[in-house]
Amino acid sequence: MSAQNNVKSDKLLTMLFDDGMYTELTPMASDDGVVTACGKVQGQSVYAFARSADFDGAMTASQAEKLKKLYALALKTGYPLVGFYMGSGAKVAQGNMLLDSLGGLVASAGRLSGVVPQISVVIGDVVSSTAMLASSADFVVMTQDAKLSMFADSECSGMGKAAIVTEEAGDAVDAVINLISYLPANNLSGAPVASRVVPCADCVFDKDSVLALYEKSGEGAQVSLARLQGIVVGCVKTLGKSLDCKTCKKIAKFVKLCDAFSIPVITQVDATEFECLNGANAVLSAYTDATTVKISVVTGQATGPVYMTLAGSAGRIDAVLAMQGAVVSPVKPEAAAYIALGDTLTGTVAEQDAQIAQYVATELSAENAAKAGYIDDVADSTTLRNKLINYLDILSSKRESSLPKKHSTI
Questions:
Q1: pLDDT in tens, 159-193
Q2: Which range of residues forms the domain containing residue 118?
Q3: Residues 284, 13: Cα–Cα separation, whole Å
Q4: Per residue in 256-270, is it b (16+ CB within 10 Å) or e — as a string?
Q5: Residue 17 falls inside a structural domain
Q6: In total, how many domains does the chain have?
Q7: Which DSSP category does 219 fall into?
Q8: 129-160, pLDDT tens digit by residue?
Q9: CATH number of the domain that 36 lies in?
């Protein structure tokens, strides 16, 4: 490894760990350009590795073997793992030996999935087998000039895989440090609880606590981590649009991740339809299989399959709230009103529209749904935060086991 790249790897690790202090693991091993280490990040023990761009960024068999040992340590001790990728290919001259080592490394990452949080930091062009490894992490943080792709000449930058996109490498390290503060050490630990709670005057969650994720994909919904009364929660917020396939994929992945680490999921529902059957099934499977706490808030319209999945019995939601003025309907509200009113619709078009609006506001209201038992409570902007805090407390001891199966096939 060149001196320049040595400094780069060391600098990244120094920036990551508290006070720049860490223990390098197997420092005497031949590593062909990779440093593995363990240290504290915001007081939490974390493993990390930093690969340099030496050997034209090519992954070698010795690197892969060294990283496999690090993954094995993370599995044994239950510490999160952060990997820095400055650029990569594969050292083709090593042939099948490299493929075998890389295959074992990718398998190690798969085995670790859902056990400890894995974060990949991509600050160069990462391609081929190494891209598979980097993209298999729970979170991918990328700089805006980086690339994550199967092919070096691909026009796809892979930004859709990124949970967070930053301008520079230093910003990426800061993003990782912040992200780790929201995550449990492993699937048997609770997420960190903030020691100081600052309520936000005009939002539900604690002040400055919302960490937006996957902003480059799925425009029909936002997903984020946040704190509510100091407790980390996962937030899914639909935006009043139909839910397309990319949006559904984003929601499903995020809910599965939260469930893996027992992070409660709060879903804000305002959507009338799914655009894609496969996407709808993916979201339904994620919510149905999730055993973590699930609280939904109908903020606008919750219609048909969207209501069933995100706020109803199909998604096995633990508590369903609604905002005043919200609408719950088996089909699009206007269509439901037209069907129900039938021949009683009279007068001009404007008068008929007024009758339909009146029907939607009364018969399809959240209050009516609450009276029928489909909504647990109705809130307004001044009471929603406290009601959510109360339900989190009520459900904090939730114990629910999955059925004895390997996995869902949906």
A1: 889 999 999 999 999 999 999 999 999 999 988 89
A2: 3-180
A3: 40
A4: bbbbbbbbbbbbbbb
A5: yes
A6: 2
A7: T
A8: 888 899 999 999 999 999 998 776 666 778 88
A9: 3.90.226.10
